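Bench notes, afternoon.
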Amino acid sequence: MDLEDLGLSRQELGYSGFNEIGTSIFTVYEAASQEGWVFLMYRAIDSFPRWRSYFYFITLIFFLAWLVKNVFIAVIIETFAEIRVQFQQMWGSRSSTTSTATTQMFHEDAAGGWQLVAVDVNKPQGRAPACLQKMMRSSVFHMFILSMVAVDVIVAASNYYKGENFKRQYDEFYLAEVAFTVLFDLEALLKIWCLGFTGYISSSLHKFELLLVIGTTLHIYPDLYHSQFTYFQVLRVVRLIKISPALEDFVYKIFGPGKKLGSLVVFTASLLIVMSAISLQMFCFVEELDRFTTFPRAFMSMFQILTQEGWVDVMDQTLNAVGHMWAPVVAIYFILYHLFATLILLSLFVAVILDNLELDEDLKKLKQLKQSEANADTKEKLPLRLRIFEKFPNRPQMVKISKLPSDFTVPKIRESFMKQFIDRQQQDTSCLLRRLPSASSSSCDHSKRSAIEENKYIDQKLRKSVFSIRARNLLEKETAINKILRACTRQRMLSGSFEGQPAKERSILSVQHHIRQERRSLRHGSNSQRISRGKSLETLTQDHSNTVRYRNAQREDSEIKMIQEKKEQAEMKRKVQEEELRENHPYFDKPLFIVGREHRFRNFCRVVVRARFNASKTDPVTGAVKNTKYHQLYDLLGLVTYLDWVMIIVTICSCISMMFESPFRRVMHAPTLQIAEYVFVIFMSIELNLKIMADGLFFTPTAVIRDFGGVMDIFIYLVSLIFLCWMPQNVPAKSGAQLLMVLRCLRPLRIFKLVPQMRKVVRELFSGFKEIFLVSILLLTLMLVFASFGVQLFAGKLAKCNDPHIISREDCHGIFRINVSVSKNLNLKLRPGEKKPGFWVPRVWANPRNFNFDNVGNAMLALFEVLSLKGWVEVRDVIIHRVGPIHGIYIHVFVFLGCMIGLTLFVGVVIANFNENKGTALLTVDQRRWEDLKSRLKIAQPLHLPPRPDNDGFRAKMYDITQHPFFKRTIAVLVLAQSVLLSVKWDAADPVTVPLATMSVVFTFIFVLEWYSGQDYKHLNVGEVTMKIIAMSPSGFWQSRRNRYDLLVTSLGVIWVILHFALLNAYTYMMGACVIVFRFFSICGKHVTLKMLLLTVVVSMYKSFFIIVGMFLLLLCYAFAGVVLFGTVKYGENINRHANFSSAGKAITVLFRIVTGEDWNKIMHDCMVQPPFCTPDNSTYWKTDCGNYAGALMYFCSFYVIIAYIMLNLLVAIIVENFSLFYSTEEDQLLSYNDLRHFQIIWNMVDDKREGVIPTFRVKFLLRLLRGRLEVDLDKDKLLFKHMCYEMERLHNGGDVTFHDVLSMLSYRSVDIRKSLQLEELLAREQLEYTIEEEVAKQTIRMWLKKCLKRIRAKQQQSCSIIHSLRESQQQELSRFLNPPSIETTQPSEDMNAINQDNSAQPETSSQQQLLSPTLSDRGGYRQDSADTGKPQRKIGQWCLPSSPKPRSHPGSSVNLRSGGCLTVKTVGCKMNPMSDAASCGSEVKKWWTRQLTVESDESGEDLLDI
């Protein structure tokens, strides 16, 4: 087909399209605003392949309109939370609902001082009798007035249009209004009489009531009836809020602090006025443009842009009027205003509402405790379906004891009666053992203590046992040692041991460690009197306040422990109740009351139902879980059981089969589609039978029907089974068979039950139903007020003849010619003598097609459509044109309240409920920062950056170039330059395309060289020598996600270059453009702010995956139902060849359009078409082209509320949550980005294999290398260093530790756990740190004792050497005396004396002990001169002596040389009696301490370092 260019100008073609880069940006922004995007997609479908248009526009809406646009809301919310502190004094602090009936006044007391005294404003101050005052304050009177208000509202809502000839002034509704007005006037007079006028008007509620009384009294005047005073009548419905305390509290929470919301409303109104005045001055002179001729028109146009409804039409009309020259400037003006109004201003309303829903910090902590108590209470009772067994008499199972030596008949004894005597002693013993050894362990619960008191004999026997005495001795020793350690720590903190050192900022690890040490010392009160001597009065006062504060914290700990004990008791009580039911009722926990509890068939069914994939491997030595290569795939396979995986696959296949169904290809008449139906029913029957036999149906603890998901499974199965057995051949419209087919469309919801994460989405959706219900009531109240007002003012006034030239109804008859437009997007002008195309139609006097205000029902429907900001411009124009311009205020006020407050209130409530379900709503500021920090640490990964080459050769210089910031900026500039090439269309027929593609090829080669130059030198660093053109990246490069993305884009670029020179067609040009776009996204990772936003979007997509899947499943259910209900509806205004329900695929596209709100109300009205505008057929629904009025109303309204108001707002909540992870200042962050980056660099130095794990002994070197806020000063915080090292050792029982293990330990040590951690996590962390302190203290004492024993042994050896030398000298003297002088005697050489001296000092320095870590203050360590032989020298990971010549042996000791130069001294006992006694004494001391503290034998000869 040949296409002809009409030669239309830019103004005639319109300013939407993709012909130039400017127009393309303008069009993308229009589509991202979700206004008019669907018509652009339909135009693209007519010109390009359908899949390309769908893919482009749907991804555009998803990323720009749903993700990036919601990032603005997150930015505004976080920014508003920061600047709120600056306006705290103006806005006031948050407060809860307080009674308006009391106030506080200053009164002077007897001493002359002033004090605040509460005064009850409802106190009788009037002159009414006491009986009337009592009646006025009674609840009966209050409920009577509220019931009368409700009746008045019902009467007002019953009003409707009765025709033009009906006299409306004195009908029954008018008389009822007069009666209610008199009643409420009497109520106001009674309250004034009882309270006095001053006391009456002091209440805000009474002021509002008085205003309504005055307004409604004027309203019943005949000349003012059905006028603007009708507002006062319909506003009575606001008084019904007092009926529900929850609704009243919610309204006060939102609108009570009126300064913030009121200030924002005033700011919005001021902005509208200013921008309307500016637009009036700019466009009032433009011809053929009537939107800005007057200020009211300009105001309505700018307000229309604010609501986004038809804002593109306002802008297009203005662009066409100003001409092609000024069109870009005008477009920028409107886009900037729209950007500010819709993204910033509306986000401010959401931020204010969220701030109003926020609680105080203290109130959050209180609610945390209350919530924990409530959870403990709810777990105490069994479900009602299990408690029903308590209503039946007990029939316990009996056992017969037959193996007792007795001649008498042994009666049957209850099994539980025998077990209690067997278990009681074990429980009491374990309870006592847990209580005695530890001072910090919690006492036994009440039931166990009562059991000990009952059995006094066993208790006394246990207390008199040797083990109890030894346990108490250990407890006393442990307590004394802990007191000494705390006193020493406190003394070191208070002493001047740090004098003489330069002032240095302490790290956060050191600060938090000292806070914890001080807190524990004050809490336990160790040596407080001795330490406090010599202090000043101010210091003592401060210490006393700290002590009081920590004692309060100790009381909080006791409360937390009580809650935990209460939870444990509740769980134990549940188990006891369940065991009692299991024992006393034989039918308990029996599926269908038939299958036994331990029957083989039931056990087989349990194995089949609960079998799941588990690929996690544990280390047999350490017990740690090993990381597998494909652990993400394994986690996905182990997400659900095998049976659930089979049913997920079967359900998906069944849904795919349902996708092929249509009104013209029905499952009843298509055997191929019935196969999937039979398969689904058969598999689901097998699944339910297995689960029922394994877990029971209803009256079992793990029954199939134990929640809403089980009910939904049974319902879906029954519907499918009934439909399969029935299979109706003829399905009339609006019949039971059609309803059954609609219910069959709920089949995709089975996946919600099968996948745990999908169940979590449903729980998050419905757990906050209370607040969503309250918001719905408020919006319905608002709609009812305006609907009642609209009925009384506009009923019957909106009808008009469809011929615009006819004014009266009598003349509205005959036919007339109506003109039509050739195209909605083209601005074609008629040539001279040319007429518009049209056709003849009959004249009809009727209401507008889509709305009217003849009764409250139609008015509510019209206002609901207006509340969604769709179609309100048409309502406004019709009311202004047919009733009067002054009534345009009505619709503007409703839109402002509904849009600015109503819809943003929905967004705020959904976000607040999402935070509450995730447990973040009640978190304090510090706790929320801690949760954000943990989430950031999960995302953080090692750098895996290869080190710089050691030499300064060519490779090192090239490495420096590739890692230089200037090099990276240059590459970013080149990427931008290559992206600019896409600003011109690449057309194969255009000669300009070839040089553009060639330039892109050059850029691609530059990037290839850049990548290989940057990466190949990384290759060389790990062992490769030569550079290869095509090579695989190393493992270190592959572990970085950004490097993987760069490799992918580079590979695609190389492939494109090859295809480009080989083919040179339109597809290669398209591929080249895609490669350039992909490379453009690599810039986002090279800038901090862009990286933060990109991370927010990516993490939000990852975390919202199941929410998006849930939205798709709901959309799929509605699509299947839409095919059944509206598959054959005739084409109308918006139901056309592009948008219809003829198949499931087209129905999905229509519903996606409705999700964006694009003319959803017009589609609904097209599906409501009824005779005589359609052809009905009562035999089958697929032969008629009529719609379903009630079905369309429920179908479209429910879909729009669930998807647009709730599900999409869940996306906003996820984006807000994820944005807070990355958007925080340095002051707000517990660990800043610089700290994390520094840790990554240090980890990269220690992890030389780039595996993400390191041995435990390397942790000490990693901690030594840390600097800045994570630095550990070994002179000041050696104990903290040992605690950290031991925590890593005990994590995996000495196994390797990962990157996140060390980072998590540092994060815990760098925060104040009392402020940042929640209750359960705080208790677990404190218990862990206390255990670490105990173990480190024990190891310290063991090492100190070992060193003392070494010194004793060294002194023994030295004494033996002296005695031996004296003995030799005596023997020499004796031999010299006895022998003649001619005999030569041999004297010991100098070398031997030196060896003896070395051996005498060797026990202190030769042996080696592996401590938690070598420290800077170690004596005999690496600070000694390494040149001295026989002294230890530092090596990586160990401490060892250097190699030395083999010493000569002597009788007193034997010296052996170990591998690596380590010396071992074997002590030989002396033969002299005094020294042997000392040696035996030392050995006895050593054995005693070995028994007490389980110290290993010291025969290894390892040396000790100073502690």
